[in-house]
Design a protein that fits this description.
The protein is α+β, with helices and mostly antiparallel strands. Helix content is about 55%, strand content about 15%. A 4-stranded mixed sheet has the order 2-1-3-4, with helices on one face. Helix 5 links the parallel strand 1 and strand 2.
Length: about 200
């Protein structure tokens, strides 16, 4: 097992622990991560509301439930995240819901800024984009696959917007949130189940 995987697992949180820690920091007027700003705090507050809603509304369709129940080996989903990340707020509740339909996946969350070495091994086009799901063999901690930071449709939306406008601005972020709202978590579930079925 790679040392940086072992170190990150020691610093990891369950979904409930992660949510509690982010909530506690917000009550202190702080966001997660090394950088503190009004913007990041504002995004964190929005994400708290978003995640509370998604925890109640995300549904796992029957075919995904059956696919998850069919997983026979034990895995860890080690996920890089931060409380201010809009994509993470949309995706973490989905991962948590999927995790509830199988005893063979353990969801463990780590903060990106506290796990620099882990993040460096899972860059997206050279950037520290999150969330990033790293699939580990639960016994050996071998890295088997990774996924993220967004499902394909959301990635394409941002790529197309950037090609047309040259930047990712507030309009792009609003469009992205609308995409997640319409998708209802289905793309993320299908893509991740596909990853697991391919192992």
């Amino acid at each position: 097992m790679e040392n940086y995987i072992e170190d990150s697992l020691k610093r990891s949180y369950t979904y409930q622990e992660y949510r509690s820690l982010v909530t506690k920091l917000l009550k202190e007027g702080k966001s997660t991560g090394n950088e503190q700003s009004d913007d990041l705090l504002h995004y964190s507050e929005l994400n708290e509301t978003r995640m509370n809603r998604l925890d109640k509304t995300i549904a796992v369709p029957q075919n995904i439930q059956e696919g998850l129940a069919a997983i026979r080996k034990k895995y860890i989903w080690l996920v890089l995240s931060e409380g201010w990340c809009g994509d993470a707020a949309q995706i973490l509740p989905i991962l948590h819901k999927m995790d509830e339909y199988t005893e063979n996946i353990t969801l463990q969350l780590v903060f990106r800024d506290e796990n620099e070495e882990l993040m460096q091994h899972f860059l997206t086009n050279g950037g520290r984009a999150i969330p990033k799901v790293i699939v580990l063999d639960a016994d050996t901690k071998e890295i088997l696959a990774d996924w993220g930071p967004r499902p394909q449709g959301a990635k394409q939306l941002i790529l197309d917007y950037k090609a047309a406008h040259g930047v990712v601005d507030e309009t792009a972020k609003t469009d992205l949130q609308m995409w997640y709202l319409k998708d209802k978590g289905l793309s993320t579930q299908q893509e991740l189940l596909g990853v697991m079925e391919g192992l």
